[in-house]
């Protein structure tokens, strides 16, 4: 099981990388490679050229500001997870990242790469959607910001153009009065989730004013459901918008069952989280 | 019929276990294959070749990484440690290797190089793991012989050996 031949470029600047990508229809960007390299080895992907961005400068940052956490294209999951400041500014990052594969994969895989790989079975695309974050992309044509709601086009398909490189992701800070929570069920910790659920609630006094829930592995694209008006039965509201499917890991019925169990549980955790933050 | 165009080869300088290996490889050469075939370091084992089994785990700049999920051409700027590089300078077993021997942490031995590298880095980060943390440390590696119990014991034993060695030195 070996990749098919491809041409390889290891540019030293972003400008060179963008020029290389613009000139090559079948080119692909290589960052951490934890999803791309297996696809190459299994020959599910056979790009004509790989543009390896690992030598580019200034893209490894995990920058924390009042607005949130900005993550560069070469920041590995492990580096984001290790940032205490990032976890304070947006606690859902660390909650979800600890479930992203195993430590060995997190050491090489990049958070931004995982976002634009757009796997609905992956944690971080859903987290970006739930937090209403965005991804900055660059090409020879210029830069633009893609809001998370417009980033995911289909299974393993983002809305990046062929000549664009995702250079940075922005995860907004958790606002005062808001709370988040994350839980997933997998056969072993670090495996793909059978179902993963995250919740984001906003509260005013004791009252929940907005509640949204995001799901991993129960649809083709990362799905976030607003359950503000159905807090008495949020799971049913969510299931109306989800498409749990059968695969070798779980039946559709079992996935639907997990949605029913996890949705209220994770929502309750998020409400507790909002209250606990207020106390401290 | 014209001959197919020969595949382009890249000159890659790999830093492995403190030595430099100049290899001449196609871009698609996986780091795991480069280590075994081009550097002759066959201690790194190749199991699934798609990042699931962990047998090919090596340390890249001190952190465990699947060598089957890296291209050799992409490893130029990194310091790589394979299982061959874990042994002490005098040739004796490292604490993790000694613990595997003490606790019968292996049977067929195929997965062992990946466990040894992952645990060596894991104990660097957390020198005194609980049993749960020891399990978490090896969660990304598959073993089809042992049932993992003796591997978890080996992690805890390796932590003890390291602590004892540290006390003797101080």
TrEMBL record, chain A:
Residues 1-176 form the FAD-binding PCMH-type domain. Pfam families: CO_deh_flav_C, FAD_binding_5. InterPro entries: CO_DH_flav_C, CO_DH_flav_C_dom_sf, Diverse_Substr_Oxidored, FAD-bd_PCMH, FAD-bd_PCMH-like_sf, FAD-bd_PCMH_sub1, FAD-bd_PCMH_sub2, Mopterin_DH_FAD-bd. Keywords: FAD, Flavoprotein, Oxidoreductase. It comes from the Bacteria. Gene3D superfamilies: 3.30.465.10, CO dehydrogenase flavoprotein, C-terminal domain, Uridine Diphospho-n-acetylenolpyruvylglucosamine Reductase, domain 2. PANTHER family: XANTHINE DEHYDROGENASE SUBUNIT C-RELATED (PTHR42659). This is Carbon monoxide dehydrogenase. The lineage of its organism: Bacteria, Bacillati, Actinomycetota, Actinomycetes, Propionibacteriales.
TrEMBL record, chain B:
Signal peptide: none annotated. Pfam families: Fer2, Fer2_2. InterPro entries: 2Fe-2S-bd, 2Fe-2S-bd_dom_sf, 2Fe-2S_ferredoxin-like_sf, 2Fe-2S_ferredoxin-type, 2Fe2S_fd_BS, Beta-grasp_dom_sf, Diverse_Oxidoreductases. Residues 10-86 form the 2Fe-2S ferredoxin-type domain. CDD domains: fer2. Keywords: 2Fe-2S, Iron, Iron-sulfur, Metal-binding, Oxidoreductase. PANTHER family: OXIDOREDUCTASE WITH IRON-SULFUR SUBUNIT (PTHR44379:SF5). This is (2Fe-2S)-binding protein.
